[in-house]
């Protein structure tokens, strides 16, 4: 009996040992599985990127040879696709943004440029000498990129290291590998990409559009004190008990819309519910305002709220504004107001006003689009009559209303006939260029119980 | 006696092997989906949010463990009774609203599935993970940076691919993005989507106390909002 008792404890302990071994083994197995799965994903991404860049390079070379528009359109659409794919996949690799920013930019702009050329071709224009040179430089850059990827590929095959870094041991390997091949290679590539001159074209990712500066502001510089006064006056001097400026960095003047930013402390609200306001450094205009106070008892009608918003805009010196779409959220309603001139709606001059539906107080104001775009406009009279423009539209599109409007188109603005209507039970807006009759844009309108969105 | 030992050995073997092959499902990321209806047996981050709120308001006295059990059930019923809600022990839309939890907006058939809710919710989760301790304007700013990135040529061009870009956001890497966003985060996401940008076009932000990358300091610094510096 005693002897048996002596066996129990060691037996249980050895059982526990076995159990924990089994458990550990399982854990290790699943870890290896996860690592392999991740590693495979990264490997796949890398090989894909290589292939896509290759295709970009080859198609660019072909485009330089091709002489017909049809062929060019096919090639450019392939370039656009392949470059976007490469960029998408590059951004999924476990590499820091700092090491690939310029390479990604190169790929985005190559795709964007191809799409721009497709548009030009469709409008019947030929490739100019400048564009040909741009294509040439894109081609040589993608070639350099591709060669670098080839080198990287070879060294990856040699050292056989993992791209993903999960376990400690692997991490060490990858860190070494990274330092030696991967990072160095990508950093070299990124540096080369940094030397490429700016691409000049009209597309959403071109530097001219991304770096556009505000044109709607006065030229005079405004001091912090004056801006502070402007902010207080805008909100109502007697309604605030304190104002405080945000800390600024040294490059604030290089912002898209350089401004002073303030906390305003209203009398009626507790200190942690500040109102935020941005005042432009040029001209001292209030660019945006946001009051995040909670709205509890929404009782105002949309019509009432719109009147309040319009009155507010008049008080702030914005005449001729016209409410367009509204969106209800969080007890407030947001109106999009567009400027008008001679009964023509000017969409680029956009001001957003948010009205709290409890008291009708304005709790949000955003005129950044207005100040970015507003300027003296000489609107040329349309070359097409409304009837002529109407004839350009699909016959079974049921037009509810028509009017003239100016809409943004890339870096420019175009005068269009705006046709609102229905097709297949869905709402659309079709814009027909009033000067040359081109179909400039189509927007789909999505309405739900809270308001309207355009896509 | 010998039999007894053998039986216990076998039994404990079985038990132990069950234990060793047990996959901890409960520890997997939860709260992955938009707020849902919670009831007895529900598990996840959103349950934890409910428990945390009820605990702070004195309805709940159990552990905040993310498991909807008897205590949570009783606490929810108590809360519902006090607040004039249907006393059913289920956290549906109205109870969640009374608790101040963000609820997914009602679905609309008329839009054909085209809407902004997916972007809105994902953005709100990113804000909640990255900046829940920040003032409201700091939340809008973080969302604005994400949206500015989607329009930049050196970043991916959708909200999801910007947020999930490897090594881009710490809250994504450590799983905090899967917490259920609160009302403030959702509102900040909406304001940013509606065009409010307190950063004037910035693409980066960093916390000067915790930022480890030297590179980030080579950015052009614009302004400081809350704890974060913003720059391009």
TrEMBL record, chain A:
InterPro entries hit by this protein: PepSY, YpeB_N, YpeB_PepSY1-2
Pfam family, any one: PepSY
Domain PepSY: 384-438
A GO BP entry: spore germination
Source organism superkingdom: Bacteria
Annotated ranges, domain Sporulation protein YpeB N-terminal: 32-163
Residues covered by the Sporulation protein YpeB PepSY1 and PepSY2 domain: 184-379
Protein known as: Germination protein YpeB
Native source species: Tissierella pigra
Gene this chain is encoded by: ypeB
């Amino acid at each position: 009996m005693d002897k048996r008792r002596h066996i129990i404890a060691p037996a249980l302990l050895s059982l526990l040992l076995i159990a924990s071994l089994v458990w550990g083994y399982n854990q290790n197995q699943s870890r290896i599985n996860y690592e392999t799965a991740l590693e495979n994903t990264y490997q796949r991404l890398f090989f894909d990127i290589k292939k896509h860049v290759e295709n970009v390079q080859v198609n660019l070379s072909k485009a330089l040879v091709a002489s017909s528009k049809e062929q060019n359109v096919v090639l450019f659409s392939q370039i656009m696709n392949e470059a976007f794919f490469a960029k998408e996949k590059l951004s999924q690799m476990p590499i820091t943004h700092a090491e690939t920013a310029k390479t990604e930019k190169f790929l985005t702009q190559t795709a964007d440029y191809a799409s721009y050329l497709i548009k030009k071709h469709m409008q019947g224009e030929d490739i100019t000498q400048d564009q040909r040179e741009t294509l040439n430089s894109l081609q040589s850059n993608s070639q350099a990129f591709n060669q670098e990827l080839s080198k990287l590929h070879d060294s990856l095959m040699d050292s056989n290291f993992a791209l993903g870094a999960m376990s400690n041991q692997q991490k060490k390997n990858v860190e070494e590998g990274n330092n030696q091949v991967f990072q160095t290679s990508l950093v070299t590539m990124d540096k080369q990409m940094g030397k490429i001159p700016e691409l000049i074209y009209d597309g959403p990712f071109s530097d001219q559009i991304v770096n556009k500066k505000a044109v709607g502001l006065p030229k005079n510089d405004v001091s912090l004190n004056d801006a502070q006064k402007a902010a207080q006056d805008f909100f109502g001097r007697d309604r605030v008990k304190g104002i405080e400026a945000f800390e600024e960095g040294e490059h604030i003047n290089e912002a898209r819309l350089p401004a002073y930013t303030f906390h305003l402390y209203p009398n009626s609200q507790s200190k942690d519910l500040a109102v935020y306001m941005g005042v432009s450094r040029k001209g001292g205009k209030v660019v945006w305002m946001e009051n995040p106070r909670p709205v509890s008892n929404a009782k105002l009608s949309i019509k009432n709220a719109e009147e309040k918003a319009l009155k507010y805009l008049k008080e702030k010196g914005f005449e001729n504004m016209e409410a367009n779409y509204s969106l209800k959220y969080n007890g407030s309603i947001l109106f999009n107001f567009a400027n008008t001139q001679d009964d023509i709606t000017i969409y680029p001059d956009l001001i957003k006003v948010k009205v709290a539906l409890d008291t009708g107080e304005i709790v949000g104001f955003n005129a950044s689009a207005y100040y970015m775009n507003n300027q003296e406009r000489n609107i040329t009279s349309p070359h097409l009559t409304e009837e002529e423009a109407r004839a350009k539209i699909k016959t079974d599109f049921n037009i509810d209303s028509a009017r003239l409007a100016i809409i943004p188109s890339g870096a420019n603005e175009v005068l269009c006939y705006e046709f609102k209507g229905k097709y297949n039970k869905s709402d659309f807006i079709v814009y027909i260029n009033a000067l040359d009759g081109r179909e400039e844009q189509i927007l789909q309108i999505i309405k739900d119980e809270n308001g309207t969105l355009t896509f | 006696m010998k039999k007894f030992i053998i039986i216990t050995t076998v039994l404990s073997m079985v038990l132990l092997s069950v234990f060793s092959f047990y996959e901890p499902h409960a520890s997997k990321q939860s709260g992955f989906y938009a707020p849902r209806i919670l009831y007895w047996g529900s598990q996840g981050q959103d349950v934890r949010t409910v428990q945390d709120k009820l605990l702070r308001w004195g309805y709940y006295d159990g552990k905040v463990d993310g498991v909807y059990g008897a205590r949570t059930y009783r606490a929810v019923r108590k809360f519902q009774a006090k607040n004039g809600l249907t006393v059913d022990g289920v956290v549906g839309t109205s109870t969640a609203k009374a608790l101040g939890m963000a609820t997914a907006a009602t679905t609309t058939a008329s839009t054909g599935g085209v809407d902004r809710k997916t972007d809105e919710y994902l953005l709100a989760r990113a804000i909640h993970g990255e900046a829940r301790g920040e003032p409201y304007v700091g939340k809008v700013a973080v969302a604005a940076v994400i949206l500015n990135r989607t329009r930049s040529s050196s970043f991916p061009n959708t909200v999801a691919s910007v947020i999930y870009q490897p090594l881009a956001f710490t809250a994504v890497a450590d799983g905090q993005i899967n917490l259920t966003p609160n009302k403030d985060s959702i509102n900040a996401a909406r304001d940013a989507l509606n065009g409010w940008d307190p950063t004037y076009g910035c693409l980066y932000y960093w916390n000067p106390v915790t930022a480890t990358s030297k590179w980030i300091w080579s950015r052009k610094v614009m302004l400081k909002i809350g704890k974060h510096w913003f720059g391009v």
